[in-house]
Design goal:
The chain has 2 helices and no strands. It has 72 residues and is mainly α. It has 2 domains: 1-29; 31-72.
């Protein structure tokens, strides 16, 4: 690589970082704290329900397989 090519590539990187920063500051709509809290609670509740469901299915499957093998 020649010095000119390196300078062009570095300028591209710097322009990308500047553009990304500008977009994060001026164009992204960040959620309000209350919206963030309610979304976090929704994720927490959904995760707990999913974990409970998987636990119940696992329990039923384990007992079902145990019944099958005990009766063989």
């Amino acid at each position: 690589m020649h010095g000119g090519n390196l300078e062009k590539e570095m300028k591209k990187v710097v322009d990308f970082i500047k553009g990304s920063f500008d977009e994060l500051i001026n164009k992204v709509s960040w959620p309000k704290y209350g919206e963030l809290q309610s979304s976090a609670m929704l994720v927490l509740v959904a995760t707990l329900i999913f974990a409970l469901l998987v636990g119940v299915i696992d329990y039923l499957f384990k007992n079902g397989v145990s019944l099958i093998y005990e009766n063989l």
